[in-house]
Specification:
The complex is a heterodimer of chains A (297) and B (229). With 297 residues, chain A is of the alpha+beta class. Helix content of chain A is 27%, strand content 33%. In chain A, the strands form 3 sheets. In chain A, strands 7-2-8-1-14-13-15 form a 7-stranded antiparallel β-sheet, covered by helices on one side. In chain A, α5 runs parallel beside α6 and α6 crosses α7. The chains are: A alpha+beta (297), B mainly beta (229). Chain B: It comes from Methylobacterium dankookense.
Chain lengths: 297, 229
């Protein structure tokens, strides 16, 4: 089943409330996905690069940070939130940090990287997950979220969304793909790396691959309609963009609302009820096989 | 004139109160405030009362309706008036997928657009959509009418048994065994009655519509198709 939500602010005055609004949307979708939850928030831009790291035991993250400061002389800021830590470092340090983590830090995953994007996901009820990471206090321009009802693989943090396969790029998915194994092999030959066997991660990787080749977010999603087989409603974020697409038979539900202040997506209208001015919003169901995309200027 | 605010009272209390109405009740006009997209609002009614829902409804609103008149002032989610038996349901905004699915009777009027599979497996309901309908509408429809003032998406009337489909706008494509048929006087009269029931008599010309129906070639097993099973 699963629930997905997204909020893209057009009015900067709402940015301090982004996390609180998304938290309300996410928690409403608990009925559709009580197993785990996750979200990506596009907040303040870093001078360098933000790396979101995750470990089941937060002590591992603190140890790794000490180790990197000691071994690499790494200069970075670190913000710990429960099982995740966001490192802000010089972009030129990314490769040696990843190498150090690979060599010394078993049990630590890099869940996302970007100038603005931070990703948090965990097993548990959406409200508990939102509270562990203090989503309500987060600020930013846009955010996407997912509540998972696992149907085909175990309830683990690895299986939780969003998935990120490129800088500042992430995706949440409601549905299931049927050609992801073949596509994953093809994308691996193209140089993409995947952390899980999950179908949604392949969709994220596909978009990364298209955008790396020069496609816009909208173009990448348009070509996904012919290259991905299966059921999907995707909500996708990039550093400046936000987009939605549904498969051609519109298997999974979707509702959108647009006002002068924001564009919002929910698997069901219920998720949008708490948004400011929703009574006067243009509420519509996105059409099948049509890409809806917005870009910040 | 009972009023139910769904932010103050649980949905089950509303549906329970509506189900408990005696046939001769004088509480004939109900107002529902703050529906907030909740699912299964005013489902399973069997009384000649009217219910006005002041906002957007979730899934299966007015499902299984018998005799009641139900108005949704906003949009309706998946399966509005699904399996309706009789009565009248009107959506002032858009309806999501599977509007009027499997409905046996009554009238469903949608002022806006309806999503995919509108009237899927309909069994006698009269559906009128002032906007357009999505793909696979009237899929396996068995009886009743689907009237569309706007356009119809892909595969209209796929695997149709009976049912009459009237479309004023463009039809993207017809589904298997669905064909265009001649508009005779009997059909113009039927369409006029449907428009009248939706308050459109005199505003919309039945002569602007095309009629679609079943070619009836899928009715019976044909030995040439044996290999397909």
């Amino acid at each position: 089943m699963c629930g997905i939500v997204g909020l893209f602010l057009k009015n900067g005055a709402l940015e301090p409330r982004l996390g609180a609004l998304l938290s309300g949307m996410l928690c409403t979708m608990t009925d559709r996905g009580p197993d785990s939850a996750g979200f990506a928030v596009y907040g303040t831009g870093a001078e360098g690069l933000k790396l979101t790291l995750r470990a089941a035991d937060p002590a591992l993250l603190a140890d790794a940070l000490d180790g990197m400061r000691r071994d690499l002389g790494l200069a970075c800021e670190a913000t710990a939130r429960d099982t995740h830590t966001v490192l802000t470092l010089a972009a030129s340090d990314e490769a040696r940090v990843r190498a150090w983590l690979g060599a010394h830090a078993r049990g630590i995953e890099v869940v996302g990287a970007g100038r603005r994007m931070e990703i948090f996901k965990e097993v548990g009820l959406p409200r508990a997950v939102a509270e562990r990471f203090d989503l309500a206090a987060m600020t930013g321009s846009h955010a996407i979220g997912h509540t998972r009802m696992a149907t085909e693989s175990a309830v683990t943090t690895d299986g939780a969304h969003p998935f990120s396969t490129g800088r500042d790029e992430c995706l949440v998915h409601n549905g299931s793909l049927s050609n992801h194994n073949g596509l994953r092999r093809r994308l691996e030959r193209e140089g993409l790396a995947f952390a899980t066997r999950n179908d949604s991660e392949v969709a994220a990787g596909y978009l990364t691959w298209r955008m790396r080749a020069g496609a816009s977010l909208k173009e990448a999603l348009e070509s996904s309609l012919s290259d991905l087989d299966g059921f999907f409603t995707f909500v996708v974020g990039t550093e400046t963009g936000f987009a939605v697409v549904r498969d051609p038979i519109a298997c999974k539900p979707a509702v959108m609302a647009e006002t002068d202040d924001y564009v919002a997506f929910g698997s069901e209208y219920r998720a949008l009820v708490g948004l400011p001015g929703i009574e006067a919003a243009r509420v519509f169901e996105p059409e099948p096989a049509r890409v809806y995309a917005w870009e910040r200027h | 004139m009972p009023t139910f605010d769904l932010r103050l009272a649980p949905l089950r209390a509303l549906n329970g109160a509506l189900h408990a109405l005696a046939p001769e009740t004088d509480q004939t006009h109900w107002t529902v405030l703050n529906p907030d997209g909740r699912h299964a609002i005013a489902c399973g009614l069997d009384a000649p009362v009217s219910v006005e829902i002041e906002g957007n409804a979730g899934y299966y609103c007015a499902g299984m309706n018998k005799r009641a008149s139900i108005l949704v002032a906003g949009n309706a989610g998946v399966g509005v008036a699904e399996n309706m038996m009789s009565g009248f349901v009107r959506v002032r905004g858009d309806a999501s997928q599977s509007a009027g699915a499997t409905a046996h009777g009554g009238t469903l009027v949608i002022d806006g657009n309806a999503g995919a599979r509108c009237g899927i497996s309909m069994k006698g309901v009269d559906i009128l959509v002032k906007g357009s309908v999505g793909h696979m509408s009237a899929f396996m429809a068995q009886a009743g009418t689907l009237t569309v003032l706007g356009d119809a998406g892909e595969a209209l009337g796929d695997s149709l048994y009976e049912a009459r489909l009237y479309v004023r706008g463009r039809v993207t494509s017809l589904g298997a065994d669905c064909v265009e048929k001649e508009m005779r006087d009997v059909h113009r009269a039927e369409l006029h009655a449907r428009l009248q029931a939706a308050g459109l008599a005199g505003e919309v010309d039945p002569g602007e519509f095309r009629r679609f129906g079943s070619a009836r070639t899928l009715y019976h097993f044909h030995v040439d198709n044996a290999g397909a099973y």
